[in-house]
């Protein structure tokens, strides 16, 4: 009569205990791919990023910053004499160029005086940048860039008010900025920005691209059949350096990590069957 050793009888069942039974599924929403429950899947965001840097003119930067600091002490208004002298000339020019706005007329007349003023200035270099900047700013504040259809006479009233104010304030601005001009020029400003274009994303499982027409449907099927959880949202942070401090910031993208697959307790079933047969054998 053949005797079976209890130890040898238990070995097959111990082998069964050591082999997990991993779930498998064919996923129609994921392009018909066949995956197992221990597959590692992730959503990868795709974007094109490009960094743009430009060295801003030191003179232009100084003219802009010093204009602001000098503005409080250089407040002026148009004089009647200047306005009366400006109006006839303005109407004549406006008649020839009727498509110009009051802002454009103001800038043209104000800028025409800059060469003469700067030639007589104590600091011509400073003046060549401060004068145009002052003309443009004051004409923007007092005039309009969308009144081309307005008749020349009323349009010139506005344009001459801006021109005379800009002209009188230019001298003050140049004198004020000259004091700080050299110290301002010692700083070079570099502005950088990073632009990103979002191009969507794709699902990858075990490093392979999943050809899914509907990413949401594919993610839902992965969750339902294999308990693989995916977060299809991603956060793209684009940092733009516009303060001219010379430091450019990079783009950071954070993508949620996929949840680890749940194997469950499916592999315990064969073990319970083996233990039951062994108990019956002992009896």
Strand content: 15-25%
- Can you summarize the main beta sheet? 3 strands, antiparallel
What string gives the helices and strands in order?
HEEEHHHHHHEEHEEH
Helix tally equals 9
Tell me the number of strands. 7
Over the alpha carbons, how many angstroms does the gyration radius reach? 39 Å
State the end-to-end CA separation: 18 Å
* Arithmetic mean pLDDT: 75
Biggest sheet, strands in spatial order? 3-4-5
- Sheet/helix structural class: alpha+beta
**Number of domain units:** 2
Q: Could you name the ranges where pLDDT drops below 50 across 5 or more consecutive residues?
A: 1-19, 235-283
The coarse silhouette is elongated
**Which percent bin holds the helix content?**
40-55%
Task: Report what the structure shows.
The chain has 283 residues and is an alpha+beta fold. The protein folds into 2 domains: 6-53 and 191-260, no CATH class; 73-187, no CATH class. Helix content is 49%, strand content 18%. Helix 2 (58-71) packs across helix 6 and helix 6 (124-142) runs antiparallel to helix 7 (152-184).
Task: Write the topology of this structure.
Layout: H1 6-18, E1 24-27, E2 33-36, E3 41-56, H2 58-71, H3 80-96, H4 102-112, H5 114-119, H6 124-142, H7 152-184, E4 189-205, E5 208-210, H8 215-226, E6 234-237, E7 252-255, H9 268-282
Antiparallel strand pairs: 1-2, 3-4, 4-5, 6-7
Q: In summary, what is this structure?
A:
49% of the residues lie in helices and 18% in strands. It is α+β, with helices and mostly antiparallel strands.
